[in-house]
Amino acid sequence: MTTPTPTRYPLIILGSGAAGCTAAIYAARAGLSPVMIRGNQPGGQLTITTDVENYPGFASVIQGPWLMEQMEAQAKHCGTILVADHIVAADLTLRTLTGMGGQQYHFQSLIIATGASAKWLGLESEKIYNGRGVSACATCDGAFYRNRDVAVVGGGNTALEETLYLANIAKSVTLIHRRDAFRGEKVLQERVLSHPKVKVIYNHTIAEILGDPDPIRGGVTGLRLQSTTDASIQELPIHGLFIAIGHQPNTGLFAGQLDTDTTGYITCPKGTVQVTKGGQALPGIFAAGDVADPLYRQAVTAAGLGCMAALDANRWLEGQHV
Fold first, then answer.
1. Interhelix angle 18-29/299-319, nearest 10 degrees
2. Which H or E run includes 303?
3. What Å distances lie between residue 2 and 29, 88, 102, 155, CA to CA?
4. Phi/psi class of residue 32: alpha, beta or left (left: φ > 0; alpha: ψ in -120 to 50)?
5. What is the mean pLDDT of the chain?
6. Strands of 255-304, DSSP E
7. Nearest partner of 198 among 173, 171, 168, judged by Cα
8. Is 268 a catalytic residue?
9. Which among 78, 85, 140, 259 is annotated as catalytic?
10. pLDDT class of 84 with cuts at 50, 70, 90
11. 3-class SS at 244?
12. 179-194: b (≥16 Cβ within 10 Å) or e
């Protein structure tokens, strides 16, 4: 087998969500002909988001997948080179990325915009029924539960949004939260609490997912819930469970190669998108979007960080006489 010929690019953008696409637009307009590697979920988390009503510039509700299609089309129109590959290895010292087929991409400058992925509960029963009644994406799998009873677990914006989406499809939605109050936006809380098809169970966690393990006819039949205030147990009959307990940054590729916080988010000096190692800047390497943002995690803030990363990358490359 021959070794793929390395290709060197002035700027590679790793990820194609709101941060990656915005970075690509700005970098392309600066004449850098950036390469955007789309990853295994092109478009990022907005592709599994239905109604988007808080992205500036749209008076009416828009759809997340449509918004990302437009962003990517704009990036391509401006001169971005789109690459359909998934990076499986990265060496920031050698400035090399390796794709699934062994293709190597050498870069002078890199913008890491790999985003974040859904967290799971970690139950053995969750693994058994994953894809057969357990999901982390209501917009992907909600249609399978039309006029059926489902549950959502979580307490932030994601859980509230998933609950409202499912309430338009399912017979009933039970929202389970381990605390006695939600963390999500007040407007979402009000919509959830006033919805006639939604029931909320506070101060409980999921101890076990119940069901029939038959690989053909089986699936989820219920949940065993445990109180967080006493030792009581209750069972809840449902047909589907949607996990919405947050996300973890997609930084595994770069383990030990850059600075992160205790949960894996890339840490940049305040007010910058500069990636560091041991507190020292890694020249020409920047981070943007949810991969470096454990606090806000909004499409508009991701886009803003993508803009910053592209401008900084352009300045750095200009200093290298590229």
1. 40
2. helix 299-319
3. 36, 19, 10, 51
4. alpha
5. 93
6. 274-277, 280-287
7. 173
8. no
9. 140
10. very high
11. coil
12. eeebebeeebbebbee
Residue with tokens 């749209």: 58
Tell me whether residue 137 is one of the annotated catalytic residues: yes
CB 140 within 8 A of CB 48: yes
DSSP β-ladder status, 104-112 and 7-14: parallel
Place of tokens 């990325």: 97
CA distances from 134 to 4, 91, 155 (A): 40, 36, 18
Condensed to tens digits (0 to 9), the pLDDT of residues 213-226 reads: 887 788 999 999 99
Helix pair 157-167, 186-194: axis angle to 10 deg: 30
Q: Is 141 a catalytic residue?
A: yes
Q: Which of 141, 149, 290, 312 is catalytic?
A: 141
Give the pTM. Answer: 0.79
Q: Which of 21, 51, 137, 290 is catalytic?
A: 137
Residues 6+ apart with CB under 8 A from 85: 37, 38, 99, 100, 101, 103
pLDDT of residue 6: 55
Mean pLDDT of the region 286-297: 93
